[in-house]
Amino acid sequence: MILFLTVINGSLLLQAEDHATLRYALAALLTAAQKFQSIFRSNAYQMVVPTLVQVYSLHQKNRMVKDVIKFIWTRFYWLNENVFLLQAIVSVANLFSSDVSALASLLK
Predict the structure, then answer these.
(1) pLDDT by 10s per residue, the chain, length 108
(2) Residue from 78, 80, 11 nearest 46 by CA
(3) Could you tell me which of 18, 48, 87, 95 has the fewest CB atoms within 10 Å of its CB?
(4) What's the distance, CA 97 to chain centroid?
């Protein structure tokens, strides 16, 4: 499952503006979240959310990408409400802490 999510995350980061790639990658993530709910409830959302946040932040001017990312977030929330929220918060907090530490090392 980790390898599968890594490949999907990589394709999202590299080709997020390609409509077909974005559609198939997010459909694969949503299908995996539905079929493998026990894995996603344990820690898989922590592997997916940072990529979705990065894609959203890199393509803020592209309305289609933003709308699709918002839609997939609502679908993930609909599948596993509290679990998704908690793992999303942890993932975003890890992104901020790693960015701060990288910035601090550059300033030294």
Answers:
(1) 788 889 999 999 999 889 899 999 999 999 999 999 888 888 889 999 999 999 998 998 999 999 999 999 999 999 988 999 999 999 888 877 766 566 556 555
(2) 80
(3) 18
(4) 17
CB-neighbour burial class of residue 26 (10 A; exposed 0-12, middle 13-18, buried 19+)? buried
Q: Tokens standing for 100?
A: 């701060």
Q: What letter does residue 44 receive in the DSSP assignment? A: I
pTM: 0.83
Q: Using alpha carbons, select from 68, 51, 74, 75 the residue that is nearest to residue 17.
A: 68
Count of CA atoms in the C-beta half-sphere (13 A) of 17: 6
The Cα–Cα gap between 61 and 25 comes to 20
Residue 73 burial (10 A CB sphere; 0-12, 13-18, 19+) = middle
Q: What DSSP assignment string belongs to 84-97?
A: HHHHHHHHHHHHHH
Would you mind telling me the total number of residues written for the chain in this entry?
108
Unique residue bearing structure tokens 């959302």: 45
